[in-house]
Structures are given as structure tokens and as C-alpha cells.
Design goal:
By secondary structure, this protein is an all-alpha fold. The chain contains twelve helices and no strands. It has a single domain (8-268), classed as ABC transporter involved in vitamin B12 uptake, BtuC (Orthogonal Bundle), CATH 1.10.3470.10.
Length: 269
């Protein structure tokens, strides 16, 4: 594996993996404590509409996914903030809508681009320098927003109603949280794909939550765990010629089941 580090695509993959880990560790922690995993899944799968639209318009797939997913996140925030009890139906409808739009636009394009499959399941070894720039900007933007509004995000994460009484604009910050979730998903498309990104958003923060009391520590541990899963997954994919995105998620899933089993046994004791 050490000799592989001399290859440019491996170096890009490692940088992309670290950037993805930072984004997922920070945003994923907020997603988990707010119980928004299913909502994040809806945004991720709905973003496929942006990929199909980008293919139809002959523009960058990532830019198409970015615009479409942000638009979906705002719609989801508006619909679920008022009526969270029926959020599952809303997410299901938007999930299906985004996938259907993506498929239709792909069908209407001149010659179906099979490269869309890489955006569904990830292709971290094919990350370009342009992708790295987009991921870097996205990570910086996410960290900046979370750092500036950390107290507000902390407040709405643990008691939305009380925060509202204290004068916090909960609707605004709920929408911002949806938008940075969309940004995080787009940043992760190349690494693990739209279908598997929810696992990287939820598994490391779930494990970190069991060891941390404070949200900030949970974010830091989530970033560390995500980085570990990405590095091990890349190593396995390189050694055994496996799909990189699936390898990363498989490593994370094993860690999840081990952690879950440990907590169940501890609870029984």
C-alpha cells in the first residue's frame, strides 16, 4: 500500500477521504442528534434528479446535484418544520420525485452516460483536482457555518420549543441545517455515492454519541472514526480490487454492529 501512495489518484483519494470525514463528522453529528437520518437519506436520493438534469444540460454533475439538493433541502425544511409527525411521507415523496426526475432527464439526454453509476455508488479513486477543490470549499463553508452558529445549532438540537421561547429563530436554523446537510451529501458523492452516503453520515456519529456527552466532542470523535473507516476501506479496496465506496461503508457497518453488540451486552450486565 505504501508504494501506491506515489500514484496521484491514490493521493487524491486520501485527501478526498479526509475531507469527506470532516464534513460527515460535523454534519452527521447534528443529523444524528436531531434524528434527521431519514431526512438526509431523502435529500441524498433526491439529489439524483440534479445529476440527471446536469447530464441533460451538459454541465458538471456535481454542480447539478448541488443546486438540486439545496432546493430539495429548503422544500423539505419548509414542509417538515410545521408537521414533523408526517415527515416520513414527505421524505418518501421527495425521495421518489428526485429519483424519477433524474431517470427521466437521463433518458432524454443524447446518449446515456453510464458514469452516473459512479455517483450512485461512489468512485473515490477517480476524484479529480476539480472535485477536490469543490469538496474543500464545501468543507470550509460547513465548518464556518457550524462554528459561527454552534450555540444556535446546539439549542435547536436538544430543545426546539425552548429555543423558540428564548428568541432563537428555529425555523431559519433548521433550514440552514438542512442546507449544510445537502452540501455535505454533495461533497461525499464521489467518495461513497448517493446511495451509501447516509451510512457515513450516521454510523460514526452514532458510535461517537455513546462515548461523548458534549456535541463538540462528538463531532471530533466522529471525524476521527470516519477517517479511520475511510482509510481502512481504501486499503481493502486497493488490496483486494473492491469497490472503494462499498468497502468504506462495509468497514463502518462492521464497526456499528460491534459497537451495538457491546452496548447490548453492557446493558444486560
Amino acid at each position: 500500500m505504501i508504494e501506491a501512495l506515489s500514484f496521484g489518484f491514490i493521493q487524491n483519494a486520501l485527501i478526498a477521504g479526509i475531507l469527506v470525514s470532516i464534513a460527515c463528522g460535523v454534519v452527521g453529528s447534528l443529523v444524528v442528534v436531531n434524528r434527521m437520518v431519514f431526512i438526509a437519506g431523502g435529500i441524498a436520493h433526491g439529489a439524483y434528479g440534479g445529476l440527471g438534469l446536469a447530464l441533460f444540460l451538459s454541465i458538471s454533475p456535481l454542480l447539478g446535484a448541488l443546486g438540486f439538493s439545496i432546493a430539495l433541502s429548503i422544500v423539505i425544511a419548509f414542509l417538515t418544520y410545521v408537521n414533523k409527525d408526517r415527515a416520513d411521507a414527505v421524505i418518501g415523496a421527495i425521495w421518489a420525485f428526485g429519483m424519477a426526475v433524474g431517470i427521466i432527464f437521463a433518458d432524454m439526454s443524447k446518449g446515456y452516460n453510464t458514469d452516473l453509476t459512479s455517483f450512485l455508488f461512489g468512485a473515490i479513486l477517480s476524484v479529480s483536482n476539480g472535485d477536490l477543490w469543490l469538496m474543500s470549499i464545501t468543507c470550509i463553508l460547513i465548518i464556518t457555518v457550524v462554528a459561527i452558529f454552534y450555540k444556535e445549532f446546539l439549542a435547536i438540537s436538544f430543545d426546539m420549543e425552548f429555543s423558540k421561547l428564548q428568541g432563537v429563530n428555529t425555523k431559519f436554523f433548521y433550514t440552514v441545517l438542512m442546507i449544510i446537510t445537502a452540501l455535505c451529501i454533495v461533497a461525499c458523492i464521489r467518495a461513497v455515492g448517493l446511495i451509501l452516503v447516509v451510512a457515513l453520515l450516521s454510523i460514526p456519529p452514532y458510535i461517537a454519541e455513546k462515548f461523548c456527552v458534549k456535541l463538540l466532542r462528538m463531532m471530533v470523535l466522529s471525524v476521527a472514526l470516519s477517517t479511520l473507516f475511510v482509510l481502512i476501506g481504501l486499503f481493502l479496496s486497493y488490496m483486494f480490487d473492491l469497490t472503494s465506496g462499498a468497502s468504506i461503508i462495509l468497514v463502518a457497518s462492521f464497526a456499528f454492529f460491534l459497537a451495538k453488540a457491546k452496548f447490548i451486552l453492557r446493558r444486560k450486565r
